[in-house]
Design brief:
The structure holds two protein chains of two kinds. Chain A is mainly alpha-helical. Chain A is about 45% helix and about 10% strand. Chain A contains eight helices and three strands. Chain A has a three-stranded antiparallel beta sheet. In chain A, a hairpin with a 4-residue loop joins strand 1 and strand 2. Chain B is mainly alpha-helical. Chain B contains nine helices and three strands. Chain B has a three-stranded antiparallel beta sheet, sandwiched between helices. The chains are: A mainly alpha, B mainly alpha. The interface of A and B includes residues 108, 207 and 217 of A. Chain A: It is found in: Mitochondrion matrix.
Chain lengths: ~240, ~300
Amino acid sequence: MALRAIAGKKTLTLGLGFGPSGAAAAASFPGLGSGLHARGLVTFSLPDLPYDYGALEPAISGEIMQLHHQKHHQTYITNYNKALEQLEEAMTKGDSSKVVHLQSAIKFNGGGHINHSIFWQNLKPANEGGGEPPHGSLGWAIDTDFGSLEALVKTMNAEGTALQGSGWVWLALDREVKKLKVETTANQDPLVTKGANLVPLLGIDVWEHAYYLQYKNVRPDYLKNIWKVMNWKYASGVYEKEVA
Amino acid sequence: MGGASLLSALACGVSSSSIGAPPHSFLCPTPNRRRKSRRKVRCAPITAQFELKPPPYPLDSLEPHMSRETLEHHWGRHHRGHVDSLNARIAGTQLEEMELEDVVVASYNKGSPLPPFVHAAQVWNHDFFWRSMEPGGGGKPSGELMGLIERDFGSFERMLKEFKEAASTQFGSGWAWLAYKANRLDVGNAVNPCPSEKDNKLVIAKTPNAVNPLVWDYSPLLAVDVWEHAYYLDYENRRADYVSIFMEKLVSWDIVSSRLHIATARAAERAREDERRRREDDVEITNREAVEMYVDSDNDSEPE
C-alpha cells in the first residue's frame, strides 16, 4: 500500500458520495479566521493510492505513478491550500481585487486536486479486476449511447489524442438527461466546467507528465494501454448511484 | 499532372515526397524574391515544403543542462511531427506560398485558430527556441539590450524574476517570452491610435499551447518552452529548476541582442512609414479642401 504521512487535516471527500479508500479521517479545523465572518477553513491532504506504485505495470510504470502522485498531485494540493488560505484572508478583509485574482490559481490547483483524486480511483491493477469491462446498467448505457464498448474506447482515445496541449478526456454522465457523453477539458479544468449536470465516471489524464517517461510523445499508445487497468467497477458505482 | 511538368520538376531536383500533390502553380520563384524564413525553395516546386531545420549545435552539446535524449525527442519527434503535419495541412491551400511567420498570423485568424495554426506556430516556436540557446550560454546581456532591460524592468534580476514567474504560472502547456513591443497597445491585436516612443519597450509574456507574440505584432526576443516534454526527461516536474538553468546556462544573449537590433530597426522603419502616411493624408485633405473652396466660390458664376 502506498503510504502517506501528512498529518491531520480534513481530507477531501469527493462530493460524489465516495471517499478515497484508505484516506486519513482526522477532521481538525485549522485556522479559524478572525474578524466578523470567521469560518473554519478546510484544507486538504494527499489521498493514499489504493494500490502500490508498480501495480499498474506494464500499462503505467511505477516511476510515473510515484512522480504523478507524490509530486504533481501533492503540488496541486499544496498550492490549492495556499490559495484557499489567501482567499479566506482576502474575503475577510473584503479585498475584492485579491479575491478575483486568486480565482485562476484556485481553479487550476483545486481542479488538479479534484481530477487526480478521481483518477487514482479510476485505475486498478489488472490482477484485481482492472480492465474488466463494465456489466449491468453502465454496460447497457454504453451500448445504448455509443453502440459498443469498443466504439466508446475509440471515441475517447481519438478525443484524447486530438487534445492540444494539456487536459483530460472524460466519460461523463449527464445527470439531467441520463445520457453518457465523452468530454474533454483543458489544463486542470474539472468536468463540471463543461456543464453543471455532468458527473465524471472515468477521466484520463493526457498531460504529458501522465505518460512521457514511458511513452514519450506517443500518446496514442498510452491511451491504448490504459484501458487494461481501467476500474469500471468505480464508474459503475458512480453511475448506478446517479440513476437510482 | 503532365509528363512535361513532371520532367521539369525532376530536372530541378524536387524530392519524390513532393511529387503527386494536387495540381498547383508550378511557377519558379523569381531569383530575387526575398525570403524571411529559411525555407528552401527549389525551382518549379509542385508543393512548397517547410523543412525541419536542426539546432545550430550538436544534440549533445547542451548537456548536462538539456540532455541529448531530450533534444532527440523534442527536435526529432515533436518538432519534426509539426513540420510534417504543417506541410500536409497547407498543401493545396493559399498558406502554402506564404512565409512561415505569415502562415502563423494568418492561421491564427485573430483568435479563432484554423487547423494549421498549431503546427505552423510550433514549427516557428521551436526554430526560435533552439536558436535562443547555445552551448556555454547564460551569463548576462550587455550593451543596448542590457540598457533596455534596466530601463524597462529596473534591473536584470527583476527581469529574471518576472520571466521565471511567467514561465511558472503558465498553467498547462505553453511558452514564456521576452519580447519587444513597438507602437502596440497591451490589448492583443489592437492598434495604438497615438503611438509614442514610450510604447517601444521590452515586455514579458506567457502564452498557452502554440500561441506566440507574433500574433500580437510583438517582436519575440527570447523564448522558453514550458510544455512538459521540454523538461520532463531531465527535470521531471521541476519546471522552476529547468527555467532557472535555462536562463543561467543556456540562453544566447548574443542572439537575443541581434533580434533586438532587428526589432528596433523594424519599429523605426514602421514609425517612418506611419509618419509618411500621415503626411500624405494631411496633404490630400488640404487639397480636397482647396478644391471645395474653389467650387463654392465659383458657384454663382458657373456656366450652364
